[in-house]
Amino acid sequence: MNKDLLDGRLLFAIPKKGRLHEKCLELLSGADIQFRRHNRLDVCLVMNHPMALVFLPAADIPSFVANGDVDLGITGHDVILEAGMQDQITEIHRLGFGKCALQVQTPEHGPFKSVEDLAGKRVVTSFDVIAGAYFAEIDERLNLTGDNKTKIQYVGGSVEAACALGLADGIVDLVESGDTMRAAGLHAIATVLQTEAVLIKSNAPHRAHHAPLIDLMASRIAGVLAAAKYVICEYNIRRQSISQAAAITPGRRAPTISPLEAEGWVAISSMVEKKNIANTMDQLVEIGAEDLMVFNLDNCRV
After folding, report:
1. How far, in Å, CA of 80 to CA of 89, rounded?
2. Is the pLDDT of residue 2 over 90?
């Protein structure tokens, strides 16, 4: 792509593959960021905003954002910490997908039942910076020095095989469902951190004039996140039960209450957290609510 086409455009870095990629595309669609990626090119222009999307390995995005080479990015919280860029980056939103735990795992039937047991032994990981800092604190607390300190060894993949191959006494790796670790005969003895995808911007941007567009994109993405969290619950109820109904469905500020042609009845509309909607409907029925309906949200601003 001709570099001149990018002049004046906000650059937004997206993971080009891996566990975050498809969810990022769904998020962009929900925020009405329209683009066509031709022939799997790593840079493409956004059609309805002065922006361009840059598809990068998730591990590279923190440094590109921190250095101001791109203006916005999506990557994992763990990736930022592993890159050591947390002081140069602002996490605007946690995005609610790509959730997993960075855990210390050891053979299930082995002798190491706690991180204190494992301290001073061999640990294999793809997260040598985070794991190194984590075990350095444990080593210091246990007064382990010199050759007695925990040995952290980096490997690029298939970390779960290290114990079976005799390369490690324990590992530190990302765990989502835990199925892979259980299949390898491992179990968790500690959680180093919980992580998920995050929207980030630089603390030292090179293109300050993009600040309004950054704020707009952050607002749109926040709307998509809220829409995924809430539903609209509408129902009819007798006027004398309004106070009970409002206590069950208070909404974010207050429920919307409208009179009905039927004397003594009102219609109520309120935002309810999606995870609570079944219990909420049960409670409304108990106080006499009728004609309950639930609507999903595509987007919102709250």
Report:
1. 8
2. no
